[in-house]
Specification:
The chain is an alpha/beta fold. The chain has helices spanning about 50-60, 110-115, 115-120, 125-135, 155-165, 185-200, 210-215, and strands at about 15-25, 25-35, 40-45, 75-80, 80-85, 95, 170-175, 205, 220-225, 230-235. The chain has a six-stranded mixed beta sheet with strand order 6-7-8-3-9-10, sandwiched between helices. The chain is globular, with a radius of gyration of 18 Å.
Length: about 240
């Protein structure tokens, strides 16, 4: 357990999440963790253990239930030294890629990818130009005018990834983006994500149920069980028995 890096002030970590708390029926999550800048962290754990909930709390898509009133457990989420605990999702500077690509069905690929740029005030023509150029990095050259319904599962996820990355978020959260793909394509896209993470230098956190995938992708693995992080450390030290013991 010496690899554990949870709680405290994060020791200069890029992401510091202290006293995250979430209640839903009989499920309760209470966890703290931190991640270094420019690294990929994979979160593993049994189904229903709170993996996706952790991401949604970081992104601001779920409300932390920790009150911090007299119990000494005040929630704090800091990204790059900035406290984002009370900021809405759009103000946190976080990108998110989901299991489903969630592309806008009425927009072609270039308009989907450039959507974030347009929200930043960049015109449609310039946004499409940047999108077309950016798509080349995802083996999607010439896909700009394709509609989402014409894409394969792997192509759609590449487009979703491009849409997230084009606005250059420093932190990207991946909620099992490869789980619906077949094994060969899953392995290929995992390698592509890792290569992009290293070349672009963003900090990534990925939820996955595939332990071999986590070992391949991650600089650090977090194991969560019953809403509590029980282990964090390098992939080489991870034991699969942590999932059940």
């Amino acid at each position: 357990m010496e690899e554990m890096r949870t709680g405290g002030n994060g020791g200069g970590m890029f992401l510091v999440a202290e006293n995250l708390s979430f209640d839903c029926g009989n499920f309760r999550l209470e966890s703290s963790f931190s991640c270094a800048r420019g690294t990929m962290t994979c979160i593993v754990g049994p189904s229903g253990s709170g993996k996706s909930t952790l991401l949604r709390l970081i992104a601001g898509l779920e409300r932390n239930s920790a009150k911090g009133a007299g119990d000494g457990k005040k929630t704090r989420i800091a990204i790059g030294g900035k406290d984002v605990t009370n900021l809405p999702p759009a103000k946190r500077g976080v990108g998110m890629v989901f299991q489903k690509s969630n592309l806008f069905p009425h927009m072609d690929v270039a308009d989907n990818v450039s959507y974030g740029l347009r929200c930043m005030g960049i015109g449609r023509k310039e946004g499409r130009r940047r999108a077309e150029e950016f798509l080349e990095s995802f083996n999607l050259s010439g896909f700009g005018k394709r509609m989402p319904e014409t894409l394969s599962g792997g192509e759609a996820q590449r487009v979703a990834l491009a849409r997230t990355l084009i606005v250059h978020p420093e932190l990207i959260l991946f909620d099992e983006p490869l789980s619906a793909l077949d094994a060969p394509l899953r392995k290929k896209l995992a390698a592509e994500i890792r290569a992009l993470q290293k070349s672009l230098g963003f900090t990534g956190i990925m939820v996955t149920h595939d332990i071999s995938e986590a070992r391949t992708l991650a600089d650090s693995i977090i194991c969560i069980r019953n809403g509590t992080i029980i282990w964090q450390g390098p992939p080489k030290n991870f034991r699969e028995t942590l999932l059940t013991e």
